[in-house]
Amino acid sequence: MITGIKGARVRRAAATVVTTAAVLATGALTAAPAQAVTKPTITAKGGFVMNNGTGTSLFTKAADTPLSTGSTTKIMTAKVVLSQSNLNLDAKVTIQKAYSDYVVRNNASQAHLIVGDNVTVRQLLYGLMLPSGCDAAYALADKFGTGSTRDARVKSFIGKMNSTASSLGMTKTHFDSFDGIGNGNNYSTPRDLTKLASNAMKNSTFRSVVKTKTTQQKVTTKSGGYRYYNWTNTNPLLGTYSGAIGVKTGSGPEAKYCLVFAATRGTKTIIGTVLASTSADNRLADAKKLLNYGFAV
After folding, report:
1. Who is most buried in 161, 170, 180, 246, counting CB within 10 A?
2. Helix (H, G, I), strand (E, B) or coil at 25
3. Alpha-carbon torsion 102, 105, 109, 114, what sign?
4. 163 is catalytic
């Protein structure tokens, strides 16, 4: 004889079997196999992505092939400046005519620094990294190189860029300029530039600068008055990609379109580089594809 309790158990078990069978018949409980994340295709000649926390390589495409870097070179310019001992970010630099002549002569990207203005080192870093000012790069190289002439100081500064590259293990990198307007011997690889950016992002000032979308900086003029510089970051990821925190664009006839990029979501930071994309739009699309991939794997 079945008791009420045992009978209820049997009925519940039977109902469960029927329900499960019905669900299985509809396929609702059929476990879908885990989908492998598809490796993206990019237009860039070279690309590299890694997990910044673990250093794990997530994507490579000609990652160790030397290519022209364009203004991504300025990451190293900033790194050398921020590595100076006893650095005073509030020290003022007087803008020289040589800096403005240089950008005009080279038709280079500029921060539109005005001759005679007194601009702090911190402000020059914003002028370097946001509008990609080659005039700001020149001012910093002149300030932090050593030597009795401007040419000697610039040469010294570029020497510091190369010695820093060596110390970071950037074995396939060489700089012959402070801003990326090279003389045919300015190159790096996607892996090396990512390594550089990862190291530079350890510096709080660098992190603050490269994640800034726009800034207004008050500087002292030659006559003792003041003016404002308004700069907008050339990095198209800022404001268009969730979690974007940097880092630097680059472009040029040889370099094509480059971007060193980083984004953080939760506790995960993805960092990488694309070199020689075919257009500004494709550079952005390449970077977004690689970031999405990095967060998915």
Report:
1. 180
2. helix
3. positive
4. no
Does the annotation count 223 as an active-site position?
no
Other Cβ atoms less than 10 A from the Cβ of 123: the count is 24
Token digits of residue 208: 């603050």
pLDDT tens per residue across span 228-286: 999 999 999 999 999 999 999 999 999 999 999 999 999 999 999 999 999 999 999 99
Is residue 64 predicted with pLDDT exceeding 90?
yes
CA distance 271 to 213: 18
Residue of 61, 74, 195, 288 with catalytic role: 74
Three-state DSSP class for residue 60: strand
* Three-state DSSP class for residue 204: helix
From the list 132, 177, 188, 277, the catalytic residue is: 132
Q: Say what the pTM is.
A: 0.88
**From the candidates 61, 68, 71, 198, which is the catalytic residue?**
71
Q: Does 6 participate in catalysis according to the annotation?
A: no
Do 233 and 211 contact (CB within 8 A), yes or no?
no
Structure tokens at 76: 């190293």
Tell me the pairing of strands 214-220 and 244-252.
unpaired
CB 50 within 8 A of CB 262: no
